[in-house]
Specification:
Layout lengths: L12 H12 L10 H19 L7 E6 L7 E3 L6 E9 L2 E4 L1 E2 L2 H5 L13 E6 L4 E6 L4 H6 L1 E7 L19 H12 L8 H21 L19
Parallel strand pairs: 5-6
Antiparallel strand pairs: 1-8, 2-7, 3-4, 3-8, 6-7
Length: about 230
């Protein structure tokens, strides 16, 4: 048996768009996309990417760090995360997780910068134009020299800008992306064959579900009751 040994075959934006139109029976073999078809597909593809950003997968989780400033509580994060999942302070290579405040819990704190010390909590404010990480309490001068702050965040997936761009996601997602792009385009390019329309809708749902089920942490999660509040009772 002979195998190619090739494990990567990324599709360009143009190829993804054509595949979606082919699924709808719109594009004819050998005929190029019209400018309108290209723009419609590009717009729908980027709307789909933005929507899938709201469903964090393993491949859009990344790590970042913050350079603390004595007495400063707020830090603008770049690149701007969609969410910050966890924050840790590090001392001599040892990480300690910070507790997460809700927005109200953080802004209800009376002394955000008046008593600098070692940060024990954080709040991430995901505004449209900027993302700000708040540390509580703000770090002291001694803390800045001893500790570093590291965080895990959900990054933004790159959009398709040029015709030869490839998806900013694992290649295994190309099929699910193509079928779901075809689904998005169905409102602008209706399918006259009801059976074909059902195939597109079914493939869009099943391929996405397959990828969502596959792209999960393989490690086990262990849960146990929290008896902390019962001690000494």
């Amino acid at each position: 048996m002979t195998v190619s040994g090739v494990t990567s075959d990324p599709m360009t934006a143009n190829e993804l768009y054509m595949a979606a139109f082919n699924a709808l029976g719109v594009a004819q073999e050998g005929e190029p996309m019209t400018p309108r078809m290209y723009n419609d597909a590009k717009r729908a593809a980027n709307m789909l990417i933005k929507q899938w950003n709201a469903h964090p997968r393993l491949w859009i989780k990344a790590e970042g760090s913050v350079a603390m400033v004595a007495g400063q509580a707020a830090y603008a994060l770049s690149p701007q995360p969609l969410r910050v999942l966890s924050v840790r302070r590090r001392l001599n290579g040892i990480d300690t997780p910070l507790g997460e405040y809700s927005r109200q819990e953080y802004f209800d704190q009376p002394n955000k910068t008046q008593s600098p010390s070692v940060p024990v909590n954080f709040y991430f404010d995901p505004q449209v134009g900027a993302g700000t990480l708040y540390l509580w309490p703000s770090p002291s001068a001694q803390t800045v020299t001893q500790y570093s702050i590291n965080y895990t965040y959900v990054r933004r997936v790159s959009l398709l800008v040029n015709s030869n761009d490839t998806l900013d996601m694992p290649e295994e997602w190309q099929g699910a992306f193509t079928w779901n792009l075809a689904k998005w385009l169905m409102t602008q390019y209706p399918v006259n064959d009801p059976s074909l329309a059902q195939i597109v809708l079914g493939m869009a749902q099943s391929s996405y579900s397959d990828m969502m089920n596959w792209d999960n942490e393989p490690a086990s999660i262990y849960l146990q009751p929290d008896f902390e509040g019962l001690r000494g009772a």
